[in-house]
Amino acid sequence: MSGGEGIEVRGLVREFKGGVRAVDGIDLSVAPGEIYGFLGPNGAGKSTTVLVLTTLLPPTAGTARVAGFDVVQHGPEVRKAIGASLQESALDPFLTGREHMRLQCALHGLPKFERDARGSELLARVGLTEAGDRKVNTYSGGMKRRLDLALALVHGPRLLFLDEPTTGLDPQSRVALWDEVRRLADDGVTIFLTTQYLEEADVLAHRVGIIDRGKLVAEGTPAELKAGIGRPSVEAVPQDPGDRERLIRVLHRFGEDAAAASGAVAVRLPTGVGELADIVRALDAEHVRVADLRLHAPTLDDVFLAKTGRSLEGAAQGEQGEDGEDGGNGGEHGESGAVGGGGGGEQEPARASMQQV
Ligand SMILES: Nc1ncnc2c1ncn2[C@@H]1O[C@H](COP(=O)(O)OP(=O)(O)OP(=O)(O)O)[C@@H](O)[C@H]1O
Ligand SMILES: [Mg+2]
Asked: For an engineered disulfide with 267, which of 73, 188, 255, 275 has Cβ 3.0 to 4.6 Å away?
């Protein structure tokens, strides 16, 4: 059981009018000081879970304790303990960053003499010192996300909810936000972070829960989840197609056949990635020249695929197509396009970082 600053969720259900079970029986625990990554495609139920855990939506069934308090019975205590940066942030375009900070400090009851200093400290923390006196309608999407994070930190919460904090951010802003999240966790803040980015969950979260269609389909550390999927494979393309047979013979010394792209040969490695150097040496010794050699380590997408039969990247479209959703989620189609379409280059880093030559 987690202590006062963690999260305990049992059998959580949230059904919307019309029978959509956005959250369909979720159990999870987040330990104090942990970064928990809640990974899932569009429409999986991430924001609904966050809204219930932050007391903004009542659950239909089940229980949730946040910072030691029941979200239904002790809403005010939960709200006092947590900070939240929600997907739909409520910034006023006509106020400056600094004015937002001042207002938030006042709402949280900070004494007047502390407000300016606290606002400046947090604006500096998220890299908005210079932009602090500009109106929010001049901010980029990333700057708004960072201001939203600063606002969530005003009262020094021990538990922080971040709903897709990096969606739409450029790679540099994304990494800066990851650094900030890590710093907060180092300071002991418990962080519940939703994301649809594989790489984000992989590099940032201590533990990941994968959610699909309202259900938790896998949970563990990124390493555990990937290890559960199997061994990495190595794939090679001969420079000279005539060398294919010799390439197969060399690779077969290292593992069994695995699925490969056309023209390529692949084997699954029985132990791990350490064998790559041996493979390169063996190919060299046999004078087999390769045009391409890559290692495919299991990714969180492979985990998602294994659990749901679909790829995480393609899952959202299928879901939305089925539900025939529009309106409310219309704005999010654009976002999902940006993700899948390489706006953040998200599929690439996740895959590319696993490829070595
Ligand atoms: N207020 C609502 N009324 C009816 N259905 C809703 C409502 N809010 C969400 N839903 C539905 O619940 C499901 C889960 O939505 P949710 O917003 O929790 O997904 P998500 O994982 O946060 O997705 P995204 O990555 O797009 O933000 C979707 O099918 C959505 O259409
Ligand atoms: Mg959402």
From this structure: 255
Which two structure tokens, joined as six digits, stand for 4? 């006062």
Ligand 1 centroid from CA 205, angstroms? 23
Ligand 1 centroid–CA 44 distance in Å is 7
Q: How many CA atoms lie within 13 A of 279 on its CB side?
A: 29
Give the C-alpha separation, 52 to 12, whole Å.
Answer: 9
**Listed residues: CB within 5 A of ion ligand 2:** 46-47, 87
Whether 273 lines ligand 1, by a CB cut-off of 6 Å, is no
- Look up tokens 């960053």; give the residue: 97
227/237 Cα distance (integer angstroms): 26
Tell me which of 13, 14, 17, 20 to substitute to probe ligand 1's pocket, judged by most ligand atoms within 8 Å of the beta carbon. Answer: 20
Decide if 37 contacts 211 (C-beta within 8 A).
no
Give the C-alpha separation, 92 to 102, whole Å.
Answer: 13
The overall pTM is greater than 0.90:
no
Q: Please indicate whether residue 40, judged by its CB atom, sits closer than 6 Å to ligand 1.
A: yes
175 has a pLDDT exceeding 60: yes
Residues with Cβ < 8 Å from 240, sequence gap 6 or more?
A: 289
Contact 202, 185 (CB under 8 A): no
pLDDT value for 311: 76
